[in-house]
Every structure is written in C-alpha cells, then in structure tokens.
C-alpha cells in the first residue's frame, strides 16, 4: 500500500499496487465500512477488453474501434460551458456525431464553437450486454443497486464517460449517497474530494451548495460565511488504468486533464445502505418543506410528497421497502443453499457469511423504516408481506444462522 496525493491537498488516499496482496475483506472493513476513499493501480484492470481495444498505440482513445462497435448508439452529451440548475444541459446524439466533434475539438487545440462537450452517463453495458468491455472488480461486486434494477429490468447504474481535455463534472455527491467506483480506460482525471459534512461549510448565505468549488466567489465572506471552516479538498490524480473508490457522501468535482474514457458504477450494499436511508429521509423533508403551504389544501398531500420525491431521486419509500425485501429474499436463498454450492476459499460475494452480514444490515434499516412516521402513513396493509412480518422473519433467520 502506498499513498497518492497531489498539489496542496487536505490529506491523502491509500494507493494499492498489487491485486495479489489486497483482499476483499480488507477493503470491506477498512474502506467500505470505514467510508474511506482509495485508489487501485492499473494492474487491477490490465485484462479488460476496453483497456486493449478502446485505446490506440499512442494511448489515446481508439475512435475507429469505438465507431465500428458503437457508432450508431445514441449517447447523452453534456455541454460543460453551460450551467443549468447546478448541472450541465444534455442532449442525445449518435456516438459517431460526438466522436466527429471530439476529433475536431482536439485538432483545433481543444476549441470548438459548440463548446466543451462531455459524453456522460451512457448505459453502454445495458445496451451492449454481450460486449466484453470489463469485469467488475470483486471489491465492488456486492452491488445491491444494480442487482435490484437488473432484476426488475428498469434501470442500471453502470456508465461510460468520454470527454476531451478540459471537460469536467461540477461539485456533487453521488445518487442515493451511493458508493462509486471509476476506472480510467485511458487519459487522466483530477479529483477534488471533500469528506462528508465539510460540504456544509461551502453553502452560500442562501443555503445552496456551490456549482464550482474552485470559484473565487467562495472566498467572499458575505456570500459564503463558513467557507473558512472547510478543510482543503483531497486532490487526487488518477492515471490511465487506475480505479478510484469514492465512498458515500463524499462530495467531489472532477476534471479530465487529457482526452479520457472512464467506466463508472454507483452501488449500495450492507455497508452503506443506512446512508441511502438517511438520504431519502432528508429528500422527503426537503420536498415537504417546498410544498408545505399546500398541506391543508391538497388531498393526499403525503402521497404527493412521495411522488415528487420519486420524480427527483428515482425512488420513494414504497420502492425502498421493495428494494430491501428483494435483496433480503436473495440473501435468505443464499443461506438455504448448501455449503457445496460455494467454493471453499476466496472473497465470495455474496457467500453465506456475507449473506448474514447483509441480512443484519437490512434488518437494522428495515426496523428504522417501520418506526418512521412518514412510512407508517403509507397503505402498509397492501404490502406483501407486511413490513413487520417480514422483519420478524429476517430476525428469526439471522438468529438461526448465527
């Protein structure tokens, strides 16, 4: 293990060189449960198909291969030069059109009348399930989000990003306060990372988080009265082939310092599902405050709040319960399997030990969910099975298998 930091950071993150000496269980206890970022060397991705075929001999994006394989795909492209509600506006265009733009942007030293454009959040894996671009590293394989959304065939949280030097992502924390991992296929990124809680010092006098944490306006004490309390960001340079782990609630801002392609996943598991639950509670509170003046004039106000929350975040309390229930059922199925179904050694996820860990974390969150006032306002009699009955079943299973 080494340390990787750059510039004038507020700290460092651990850097792991060798896959042979870094175990899944070490990552689980020190980094997932510890909610601490780290960086993996290019050795962890050297066997990936994307590392072989998406990169040219000069270590640049292999546009010809990308066009041949995916040229007709429709991809989401953001304009980094335009701010729209704390983000960049996106349009859907063919990949071949984006690569034509990218080539011109690079040849005209990174200038274009169309601005700096960044292909973001492309669901490549969902659209091309048989294409062997990469294998999810075992450290990130306990992934409830994608396990759930794959099962219901609605969505996924696996993305490809492609952009020229100068493209960037504004200050944010990841969806549902999930973990994320991001692997550079080629190029270089600079990350500015802030530990959970420090983003509160960056809010302006109206309570809003900044769009750009490098803006000089943050140093105006009238606009940002608490900026002086915030620690400097942890600044990390991520090279080609390297993988960064960003834990729950770590706000960050990211720059492509070269033409860069990356693969990113967001994921939740037993280590951070409580972060997701706290995030949903805060989101509902924000919606309730926003439409509080209509509470006594609107029928089913509480239900409307859930609908608005789902439209903003992608999930409401009912679906969160369904999500927990489905993962719990799968872990119960794992425990009911025989030991012969699992190899005797290795970081198996989810194996029996991991299944028990997951069930205990689900039971903890489910217990809190059942006691939640807003959850109890839902039509719980329509839930199958009823939440309290399901919780009791989990507790019995955990006790029997301990």
From TrEMBL:
SUPFAM superfamilies: Clavaminate synthase-like
UniProt cross-references to Pfam families, sorted A to Z: JmjC
Matches recorded under InterPro entries: JmjC_dom (IPR003347), JMJD6_ArgDemeth/LysHydrox (IPR050910)
Naturally occurring in which organism (per UniProt): Pyxicephalus adspersus
This protein's UniProt keywords: Iron, Metal-binding, Oxidoreductase
GO BP term, pick one: positive regulation of translational termination
Full protein name: 2-oxoglutarate and iron-dependent oxygenase JMJD4
Catalytic activity: L-lysyl-[protein] + 2-oxoglutarate + O2 = 4-hydroxy-L-lysyl-[protein] + succinate + CO2
Domain JmjC: 125-284
């Amino acid at each position: 293990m080494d340390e990787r930091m750059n510039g004038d950071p507020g700290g460092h993150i651990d850097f792991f060189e060798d896959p042979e000496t870094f175990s899944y269980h070490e990552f689980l206890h020190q980094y997932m449960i510890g909610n601490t970022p780290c960086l993996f060397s290019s050795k962890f991705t050297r066997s990936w198909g994307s590392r072989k075929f998406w990169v040219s001999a000069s270590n640049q994006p292999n546009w010809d291969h990308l066009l041949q394989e995916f040229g007709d795909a429709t991809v989401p492209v953001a304009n980094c030069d335009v701010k729209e509600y704390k983000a960049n506006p996106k349009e859907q265009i063919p990949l071949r059109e984006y690569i034509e733009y990218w080539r011109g942007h690079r040849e005209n030293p990174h200038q274009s009348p169309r601005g700096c454009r960044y292909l973001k959040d492309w669901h490549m894996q969902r659209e091309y399930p048989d294409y062997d671009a990469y294998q999810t590293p075992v450290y990130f394989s306990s992934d409830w989000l994608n396990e759930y959304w794959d099962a219901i065939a609605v969505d996924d949280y696996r993305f490809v990003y492609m952009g020229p030097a100068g493209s960037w992502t504004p200050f944010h924390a990841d969806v549902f306060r999930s973990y994320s991992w991001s692997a550079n296929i080629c190029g270089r990124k600079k990350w500015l990372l802030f530990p959970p809680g420090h983003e509160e010092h960056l809010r302006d006098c109206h309570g809003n988080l900044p769009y750009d944490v490098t803006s000089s306006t943050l140093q105006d004490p009238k606009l940002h009265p608490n900026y002086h309390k915030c620690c400097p960001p942890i600044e990390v340079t991520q090279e080609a082939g390297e993988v960064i782990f960003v834990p729950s609630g770590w706000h960050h801002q990211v720059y492509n310092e070269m033409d860069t392609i990356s693969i990113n996943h967001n994921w939740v598991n037993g280590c951070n599902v409580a972060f997701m639950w706290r995030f949903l509670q805060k989101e509902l509170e924000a919606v309730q405050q926003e439409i509080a003046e209509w509470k006594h004039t609107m029928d089913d106000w509480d239900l409307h709040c859930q609908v608005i929350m789902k439209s903003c975040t992608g999930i409401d309390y009912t679906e969160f319960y369904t999500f927990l229930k489905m993962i719990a059922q799968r872990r119960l199925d794992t425990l009911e399997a025989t030991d012969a179904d699992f190899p005797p050694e290795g970081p198996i996820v989810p194996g029996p030990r991991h299944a028990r860990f997951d069930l205990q974390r689900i039971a903890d969150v489910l217990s809190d969910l059942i006691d939640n006032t807003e959850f109890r306002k839902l039509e719980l009699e329509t839930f199958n099975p009823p939440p309290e009955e399901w919780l009791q079943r989990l507790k019995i299973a955990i006790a029997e298998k301990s």
